[in-house]
Amino acid sequence: MSGRERAVIRAIDFSTGTLGLELLERTNLAPEDLVDVLNGLMTVGYAEMRPYGEATSVATVLQTHFDVNPSYALQLREALAR
Asked: How many whole angstroms separate alpha carbon 80 and alpha carbon 1?
């Protein structure tokens, strides 16, 4: 994972998920960069969004809720701990 991907995964609350607005504040990424990273994480299955969608955009990212995919949560925690 890249540094940006790690920053976004760390910013997502593993138990309850996080709103896109909070991710933007926690990661200090530009909105376009955050959207690119989130779409990449969703493509490989590491992250999910509520309401469900295949991808997010700059227009929708701030009010969308993002979760870590529970299937990968343990592996992601281990990868972030290294």
From this structure: 9
66 bridge partner residues: 18, 49
* CATH 1.20.1070.10 applies to domain 3-81: no
Task: Provide the pLDDT confidence category of residue 79 given band limits of 50, 70 and 90.
Answer: confident
Predicted TM-score of the model (pTM): 0.92
Distance in angstroms (rounded) separating the CA atoms of residues 80 and 35:
21
Nearest to 43 by CA among 51, 54, 31, 33: 54
Contact 9, 1 (CB under 8 A): yes
**Taking every pair of C-alpha atoms in the chain, what is the biggest distance, in angstroms?**
34
